[in-house]
Amino acid sequence: MVFKWEWVSGLAKGLPLTLEITFTCIAVGIVLGVLLALARVYGGRLLRMVSGGYIQFFRGTPLLVQLFIVYFGLPNWGIKLSPFISAILALGLNTAAYQAEYFRGAIQAVRGGQTMAARSLGMSMPQAIRYVILPQALRLVLPSWSNEFILMLKYSSIVFTIALLDLMGQGKRLASRNFRFFEIFIIVALFYLALVFVVSQVLRLIERRVRIPGLGAEGEAR
Amino acid sequence: MSTLLRVEDIHKRYGQEEVLKGVSFEMVKGETKVVIGPSGTGKSTLLRCINRLTPADRGRVWLEDEEITHTRTNINKIRAQIGFVFQSFNLFSHLTALGNVRIAPTKVKGMKKAEANRLAMEELERVGLADKAKAYPAELSGGQQQRVSIARALAMFPKLILFDEPTSALDPELIGEVLEVMISLAKDGMTMLVVTHEMGFARAVADEIIFMEHGVIVEQGSPSQMFTRPKHARTGEFLHKITELYGETE
């Protein structure tokens, strides 16, 4: 076993990109995921079909294949995207599909009487969704959504395949120069482990902050 | 007195079963009407057909001179004027008592937050729960939740409040506090249509009792007439049974 501090600082250069990709994709995924979920639950036949098909496609095919379609495939159609944009697009669209399913479950878990009460007060359906359904659904979804966040953090490592120098990409580059594959990738793994730890602590903190008595996984399900 | 609510020939069918077979009645301003009848006779459906939470198959409803059942009517505007109190309270779980009362004035009527806060506190005070303003629904007893839901309805200054068995989901010892609030509302001149089994309440404040069975109004009249000399044998039977069952709590 060999260990050099310069490896750690070299690998750390990939950290910002890993975080950038993860956070941007998660943000894209939230917005698109909520819209997909709303379409799935409240949309007409066409909207339900479109969002259902979207979710089926992205959950039913490997993320790596999706990434390659975007980065290597689209240029055949004259659409040439930078590696970074390709990564955001592929991972963002992918996580949106998974998040949509979590959001859908949470929206449907909000008790039916809540919508009825909102409507009885004169709220339109969009108002009821915005002021009553979503605030509850988003709280209910937090635990499973946190898992998706952490998965995304780890899955972002596949972007090294399109020459991006994220944590994994830096590791690959470094290891192929000095051939200390074992040591380097162990350090890469430890980096991810630390990231996952920090992110899950922060998410748990958020969960606690927004928790409301009687609502959510830790509240008594009534 | 001018008619506030006019219900005309309401029909509603669920699959094979016709739950409402042509129900008509009127309410004048300030009146309290109590709807009674065996369960499954369409009382709750009737209430929901009035503000279109459930669309009626046939028949018409007017609030003053506006036809609620007309497809062009802006139903949200109508609902904002008709309070609805549910059997299962249906308070918004993510909002405090104050938040529950405040949300409709701010979001539906566009009231300023400070003003809505003051209004919400007043309404909570009216139902005796000003000290619970910051509590979430899960932290309140059933009786308290129902009183908050009444305050929530009141904050919209409704022309009429529909009560759908407001005390049926409550433990017996909590029924009194809710009825008390309702009685004081009735005495303040609120127009109320109440589906309930609480005969004590009916006797105390109802201007008229409507007895429904199998989707039709069997008989309607003042409490004294209905209790002492009902026209239909069935009305007497039902009243007798229900009074035995629920007593006369007030």
Please outline the helices and strands.
The complex is a heterodimer of chains A (222) and B (250).
Chain A: H1 5-12, H2 15-42, H3 45-60, H4 63-73, H5 83-109, H6 112-120, H7 125-155, H8 167-178, H9 181-210
Helix pairs in contact in A: 1-8, 1-9, 2-3, 2-5, 3-5, 4-5, 5-7, 6-7, 7-9, 8-9
Chain B: E1 3-14, E2 17-28, E3 32-36, H1 43-50, E4 58-63, E5 66-67, H2 75-79, E6 82-85, H3 97-107, H4 113-126, H5 142-154, E7 160-164, H6 172-187, E8 192-195, H7 199-205, E9 208-213, E10 216-221, H8 223-228, H9 233-246
Parallel strand pairs in B: 3-8, 3-9, 6-7, 7-8
Antiparallel strand pairs in B: 1-2, 1-4, 4-5, 9-10
Helix pairs in contact in B: 3-4, 3-5, 4-5, 5-6
Return residue spans of chain B where pLDDT drops below 50 for at least 5 consecutive residues: none
Oligomer: heterodimer
Note the run of SSEs of chain A as H and E.
Answer: HHHHHHHHH
The rough form of chain A would be described as flat
Form type of chain B = globular
Judged by helices, strands and strand pairing, the structural class of chain B is alpha/beta
User: Helical proportion of chain A?
Assistant: over 70%
Query: How far apart lie the N and C ends of chain B?
Result: 29 Å
- Arithmetic mean of pLDDT of chain A: 93
Our count of helices of chain B gives 9
Low-confidence stretches of chain A: 218-222
Q: Tell me the helix content of chain B.
A: 25-40%
The ordered H/E elements of chain B are EEEHEEHEHHHEHEHEEHH
Structural class of chain A: mainly alpha
Walkthrough of the structure:
The complex is a heterodimer of chains A (222) and B (250). Chain A is mostly helical. Chain A has helices at 5-12, 15-42, 45-60, 63-73, 83-109, 112-120, 125-155, 167-178, 181-210. The longest helix of chain A is centred in the middle third of the chain and has 31 residues, at 125-155. The N and C termini of chain A lie far apart (55 Å). Chain B has helices spanning 43-50, 75-79, 97-107, 113-126, 142-154, 172-187, 199-205, 223-228, 233-246, and strands at residues 3-14, 17-28, 32-36, 58-63, 66-67, 82-85, 160-164, 192-195, 208-213, 216-221. In chain B, helix 3 crosses helix 4, helix 4 (113-126) crosses helix 5 and helix 5 (142-154) runs parallel beside helix 6 (172-187). The interface between A and B is medium-sized, with 25 and 30 residues.
